[in-house]
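Justification of resources, computational component.

The compute hours requested in this renewal are based largely on the per-chain cost of generating structure records like the one below. Each record pairs the submitted sequence with a full structure-token output. That output is archived, and it is also reused by downstream analysis tasks.
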Amino acid sequence: MRREIFTEEHDQFRDTARSYYLRECAPFAEQWERDGQVSRAAWTAAGKAGLVGWEFPEEYGGQGIRDFRYNAIMAEEMAATGSVGIGLGLQNDVIPPYLMRLTTPEQKARWLPGVTSGETVCALALSEPAAGSDLKGIRTTARRDGDEWVIDGSKTFITNGILADLVVVACKTDPAAGHKGISLIVVERGAEGFERGRKLDKVGMKAQDTAELFFHEVRVPAGNLIGEEGRGFYHMMGNLPTERLAIAVSALASAERAFEVTLEYAKDRTAFGRPIGQFQANRFALADIRARLSAARVYVDGCTMALVRGELTADEAAAAKYWTTETCWEVIDRCMQLFGGYGYVNEYEIARIWRDSRVQRVFGGTSEIMQEIVGRSLGL
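The structure output for this chain reads:
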């Protein structure tokens, strides 16, 4: 089915994105999986190609374009080329609302040029050992001491945690005020007392570094506060619909890639003298997958355009994240089944897609949290 949401400019951007992934990322997938992180060269190459921070104003190296369709293209091409690990989704989908809409002109001039060039890798430090989906429960604190903030605490499950040069940290600046006492403060690489803990050994997404971060009396300038003091929780909540739709987009792109490699395998692999795709059970399975993916594509594209128009609500984004990640996991698991024993061998791409996709039902808010959000929107 022909997609109607893209213009010629989007198609040109897709060509650039695909060329970048094929040249700078896909050839190194196995190496990055072994290393547990990507190379910085891939980040700077993305910056040179104009694939980072296009939402930022031109004076800071961006293009002044705010259009989620470009974000969707980046996720789709990353999956379509078999690329892994590079956290451009975080850099482009999640970070801009914080660094563009919550910062002062001085902060923008200080931070944005490095982000758009790919030289500054960003991370968002929200989750803690005792606070994941429940962001109200964070324990990391920041106290004011003259012209500085002094930060103490720890974070975990932080994407880009090892490579990050600039970390947006959610802190309790007024512990007695509950969620109204949370603020967002930027910590930069090299700050005394800022330490990186373990690079977490995950089931999947091996090439994407995910780490623990520790803050021991970390002093940063008072000017590193972004947004309003005590409004951090609301700033975070306002950004979640975009983040959750981005996860839905990535989940669908991964499932479409899984279907592509599975269909090819079903045509080439023979058993009992004929391609396995010609057996009725397998043919019906592939037909069902195609129908599911077609329905998901229409749904996700519709949500994408709602976001572009500024109409996507928090509960709609939660529903999209829930349904798409659950459906695409079922699709990918079924694709893996069609590979038989070979599907469980790491040298086959389907095994990596299967491993990487499981967490999409967890991060950005678990499926159960998404159901809770949607259920409350129904007045229940």
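Strands lie at 122-125, 141-145, 148-159, 166-172, 182-188, 194-199, 210-221, 225-226, 270-271, 274-275. The two ends are 37 Å apart (CA to CA).
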